[in-house]
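Sequence design from tokenized structure. All designs in this work follow the same two-part layout: the structure record, then the generated sequence. An example of the structure record is given first.
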């Protein structure tokens, strides 16, 4: 089995993607609401990922 080496950003990106898909599927009733909510969750995950990354970078100097 091949070994996958992911950076922290890539792993967090994949986590955001898969989690957003699942949250969109299980939390809304129509397909349009699912798509929109999944996209919204994904955007929020990425915004938090970038924002927290910058805070950590500024904190470490």
């Amino acid at each position: 089995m091949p070994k996958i080496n992911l950076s922290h950003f890539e792993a967090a990106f994949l986590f955001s993607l898969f989690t957003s898909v699942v949250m969109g599927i299980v939390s809304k009733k129509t397909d349009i609401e699912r798509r929109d909510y999944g996209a919204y969750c994904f955007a929020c995950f990425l915004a938090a990922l970038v924002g927290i990354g910058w805070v950590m970078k500024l904190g470490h100097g």
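The chain has a mean pLDDT of 94. We note this feature because it recurs in several other targets discussed in the main text.
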